[in-house]
Design a protein that fits this description.
The protein has three domains: about 190 residues, 2-Layer Sandwich (Heat Shock Protein 90); about 110 residues, 2-Layer Sandwich (Ribosomal Protein S5, domain 2); about 190 residues, Ribosomal Protein S8, Chain: A, domain 1, CATH 3.30.1370. Helices cover about 35% and strands about 25% of the residues. The protein is built from 20 helices and 22 strands. The strands form five sheets. It has an eight-stranded mixed β-sheet with strand order 5-4-3-6-2-1-7-8, covered by helices on one side. It has a five-stranded mixed β-sheet with strand order 9-10-13-11-12. Strands 16-17-18-22 form a four-stranded antiparallel β-sheet. Strand 17 and strand 18 form a beta hairpin. The relative contact order is 0.09. About 10% of the residues have low confidence. The protein binds adenosine-5'-diphosphate and magnesium ion (MG).
Length: about 575
């Protein structure tokens, strides 16, 4: 074939291939246009999954009659006029491609009226030919109607999924945009049935309501509010406590200057922020807004503008990661902060049980507990209260000012040990202790090798471990912190465990792996009997420890069953 210039219509259809993948992409582009036009209310109607009809109506600025045909022309936009403008662009659109692209693969009609016009005007896109406009009744604002999507592109039509699936995609896109513009009311119907009703959310309370509508009320319950600003970077939003972690990365929303993006750099920075507190293989949940000078980020890196390029990527990455890590490190027991909420776990329920006259109590509360725990002390210095006893050798029960505290002793102790080991590794207060009798352990050759690779880290913590033979190690010195544990068995276990993860872990995660493993091995096992004094010491230690609300696998370490909840369980005061 000879070389030739493509027909404009074909060019549009090719361009549409990039940005219009399915009905949800149409809705995204139209809603973004409505938001760019300053709409306060947007109504979206969809039929048959969007393939039959996508109609978006807004009350925004409208388009002047003489500009209507232009709106459908390729590379026609009111949002930029020079390359420089791209540096400061804050609108969703700027490429002038959406409407012509959509029009080239559907039957598109546009009705619009500006605030000062007496009536609206309608144009029907007529692929290639100049669109003619006719008067039409319309309130100030714009309606774009897209029918029979991909009627002329059978290949694309074949890829459409069921109506339900397509509508779900549409709803996800709309929800994402709804999280970027809380001040705009957005409604979505499918085959005349309501799918989303999001009233404008002008204040903090209604914003949280919208957040709960989109992300679920459990997300909101466990969300920590974030707001932090330095060096011209501002990060705000909500992050879920690590115990809310998800099996999929499906609740991760990033916005840059209000634009929803899926950016790998930001996702990885957030993940790093959660590194120490997340259960293995789980994903954090968050809604985060990054604001910075538009000149510092290039949004013209991808046709759908979902990916961006930062001028100073390293700085942004560190800022995000540090901010999240700091907020998460502050999740320690606090008197009035929302404790890991047990409400849903303690549904009032009566479970039938048989009374046995031989029934012996499974634990005996030490009578001295009363002496240690002032019965009704409103003492806010000790949010975890004072130990009453041990339950099945697994849980510590404690009385706090406002109810019962249940602590998973292994998980809690593990976190405490982990944080202490991190301090040691960071060079704070290492206290090595020589063993009276050096401990010789037999290990595999691979484990000897592993001990050698970790040598520096071991030394920093206060260990002195050397190779004795091809398959033997000698331990001469340990950190005082670990002096009471069975050091030989612990080191053997740790070296074995490091082997298991050798292939799977990223280098970045490896740094603390030794510490995490040591913490787990040195933490009190379940079924170890503790004295009240030991239990109280652990409670106090938790109150001092960063990230004490979760063990380092992200499981909760403690729960509060408040007096109010107990009253509810027993139907007291009703
Ligand atoms: P872009 O958004 O990149 O400018 P579009 O093809 O999406 O390109 O839209 C072209 C132009 O049509 C926009 O620049 C804007 O001026 C106008 N326009 C589109 N939709 C609307 C709307 N809902 N309200 C007002 N103007 C609109
Ligand atoms: Mg647009």
């Amino acid at each position: 074939m000879p070389i030739r210039v493509l027909e404009p219509e074909l060019i549009s259809q090719i361009a549409a291939g990039e940005v219009i993948e399915r009905p949800a992409s149409v809705i995204k582009e139209l809603v973004e246009n409505a938001l760019d036009a300053g709409a306060r209310r947007i109504d979206i109607e969809v039929e048959k999954g969007g393939a039959a009809l996508c109609r978006v109506r807004d009350d925004g600025s409208g388009i002047a009659a003489e500009e209507l045909p232009l709106a459908l022309a390729r590379h026609a936009t009111s949002k930029i006029s020079a390359l420089d403008d791209l540096e400061h662009v804050v609108s969703f659109g700027f490429r002038g491609e959406a409407l012509p692209s959509i029009a080239s693969v559907s039957r598109l009609e546009l009705i619009s009226r500006t605030g000062d016009a007496a009536h609206g005007w309608r144009v029907v896109a007529s692929n290639g030919a100049e669109a003619k406009r006719v008067p039409a009744p319309h309130p100030p604002g714009t309606t774009v109607e897209v029918r029979d999507l991909f009627f002329n592109v059978p290949a694309r039509r074949k890829f459409l999924r069921s109506d339900t699936t397509e509508v779900q995609h549409i709803a996800r896109h709309v929800e994402r945009l709804a999280l970027s513009r809380f001040d705009v009311a957005i409604h979505l119907t499918h085959n005349q049935r309501r799918v989303l009703a999001l009233p404008a959310a002008p204040d903090a309370a209604s914003r949280e309501q919208r957040l709960a509508q989109v992300c679920g009320s459990e997300f909101l319950d466990s969300a920590l509010r974030i707001e932090h600003e330095t060096a011209g970077l501002r990060l705000s939003g909500w992050i879920a406590q690590p115990t809310f972690a998800r099996a999929q990365p499906d609740l991760q929303f990033w916005f840059i200057n209000g634009r929803p993006v899926r950016d790998r750099l930001l996702v990885s920075a957030a993940r790093l922020g959660y590194r120490d507190v997340l259960f293995h293989g789980r994903h954090p949940a968050y809604v985060l807004y990054l604001e910075l000078d538009p000149a510092r980020v290039d949004v013209n890196a991808h046709p759908t503008k979902q990916e961006v390029r930062f001028r100073d990527a390293r700085l942004v990455h560190d800022f995000v990661h540090r901010t999240l890590a700091t907020v998460l490190s502050e999740t320690r027991p606090q008197a009035h902060a929302h404790a890991p909420a047990p409400t849903r776990m303690f549904e009032p329920r009566q479970i039938g049980f048989a009374l046995r006259d031989t029934a012996a109590p499974t634990y005996v509360a030490d009578t001295t507990a009363a002496a240690i725990a002032p019965t009704s002390s409103p003492d806010e210095h000790f949010p975890l209260g004072f130990a009453l006893g041990q339950l099945h050798g697994i849980y510590i029960l404690a009385q706090a000012a406002d109810g019962l505290i249940v602590v998973d002793m292994h998980a809690a102790h593990e976190r405490v040990m982990y944080e202490r080991l991190k301090l040691l590794a960071g060079g704070e207060g290492a206290q090595p202790q020589l063993l009276l009798v050096p401990n010789v352990i037999s290990v595999s050759a691979a484990e000897v090798e592993r001990a050698a690779t970790q040598r520096e880290q071991f030394n920093r913590l206060g260990f002195d471990i050397d190779q004795l033979g091809a398959q033997q190690l000698i331990i001469r010195q340990v950190p005082a912190l670990l002096a009471r544990t069975d050091v030989g068995a612990m080191i053997r276990d740790v070296l074995a465990e490091l082997g298991e993860n050798e292939q799977s872990l990223h280098i970045q995660d490896r740094g603390n792996e030794l510490l995490a493993s040591l913490a787990c091995r040195s933490a009190m096992r379940a079924h170890r009997t503790m004295t009240l004094a030991e239990m109280n010491a652990l409670l106090r230690e938790m109150e001092r420890t960063e990230r004490a609300d979760q063990c380092n696998h992200g499981r909760p370490t403690w729960m509060r069953l408040g007096l109010a909840e107990l009253d509810r369980l027993f139907l007291r005061g009703r």
